[in-house]
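In the previous lecture we treated proteins in isolation. Real proteins rarely work alone, and many bind small molecules. This record shows how such a complex is specified: first the sequence, then the SMILES for acetyl coenzyme *A.
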Amino acid sequence: MTTSPLPIQTARAEDFDEMGRLLNLLFHHGLEPEAHETERAIFEPERGLLIRDGTELVATAAAFTRALGVPGGSVPAAHVSMVGVAPTHRRRGLLNALMRRQLRDIRQAGEPVAVLWASEGRIYPRFGYGLAAQRLQITGDTNELRLPAPTGDEGRLRLDRPTERLADLARIHDRVGADRPGWSARDDRWWRYVLVDPESQRDGATERRVVLHEGPDGVDGYGLFRTKAQWEGTGPRGLTTVDEVVTSSAAGYRAIWRMLLSIDLARRVSFLRAAVDEPLLRLVDEPRRLGPQLVDALWVRLVDVPAALAARRYATDVDVVVEVTDDLLPENTGRWRLQGGPKTASCVPATGPADLACDVRCLGELFLGGTGLTTLADTGRLRELRPGALAHAGPAFGWHRAPSALEVF
Ligand SMILES: CC(=O)SCCNC(=O)CCNC(=O)[C@H](O)C(C)(C)COP(=O)(O)OP(=O)(O)OC[C@H]1O[C@@H](n2cnc3c(N)ncnc32)[C@H](O)[C@@H]1OP(=O)(O)O
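The predicted 3D structure, ligand included, written as tokens:
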């Protein structure tokens, strides 16, 4: 194990600008003042970690306090972000030191899990993070995509500026999000972060707009999008970029997508955070033309294994003993008896023999219900110790919705 020779400090509010400058350097972009201020509002200094070499800041990591949707409920989760090490100090164990310290801090804070978006997928498995939710990147040619014609009154659509309709957006997001593993709770500060829209980051497109759907019971869905003009010798070839579509009615979902796929002078659509079970693929007449590309979204780390496993619900009744190994947080290592079902769950130290064996990373992969036990068994990373245990526990770890994630934090 590489260990950092430099001490780790807790951040103060006034360190934020310096952290921002380091992270902008590492992510190869300039400082955007408006975005920087919304990020300052979500920054929690006491959860920021810094490493300095002399006076120079050379490494950072931070966590945000939010609830994460899990099968059957939600759990307090450290949302890990702002991770970076200066190019002058890379591959000397600074990240390793930060991650170890951060996992300890998260455990002490009483959050059973940590969650993050990874800049590169190979960075976090060594720290026990497992790929818990994937997403589809959709880029399609709207001329090739048709939705079924409306069968009756599909309600009414209105356009507005998102910041003018914050109350509607928050209400719909909270209502729909109650049954969406992978979605993170948004308070006012997080809505501002999601909706910040500096011109310098639009890449020539319009400001962000919202289309709202009104059904028989009022506003029940919204879509956030922008458009970008492009003209070719043969005519228009504009782009519609969709950020999120959140609806509590099928009519709203259909109506919003019908509009988004048929905006005049646009010929292409891009939607980079579609769920792996996105209904759009079941609605259009030629799903292949959506060009779906499967990539990683959320990485989950179980910080307190029994608390985390007891915090979610299971699709079927399950009673299983799992032998877990965790090199970084040895408190998690051991045999845990999980008893659960759709309504309750408990997880306690086991006295009997184990049915399954895996490392803590596998539990992260399973946690949101989007990864099959048998898939992990087929990789050899999860082992069936009692014949029949996979068939018994496999359906329980799944869920009726694939996990998904709306915003990168
Ligand atoms: C949640 C988020 O914020 S995601 C954003 C992460 N940040 C970035 O991508 C910004 C650019 N990259 C960086 O700042 C750095 O390269 C970091 C933070 C990814 C890695 O920091 P370092 O201090 O170099 O990592 P460290 O030396 O502790 O490496 C730990 C181990 O991970 C490996 N590793 C670290 N980064 C990478 C990588 N990008 N690709 C492959 N392996 C990596 C190292 O080889 C090392 O392996 P070992 O223990 O087998 O020797």
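Summary for your notes: Residues 2, 26, 80-85, 90-96, 116, 118-120, 122-123, 126 surround acetyl coenzyme *A (CB under 6 Å). The first helix runs from residue 16 to 26.
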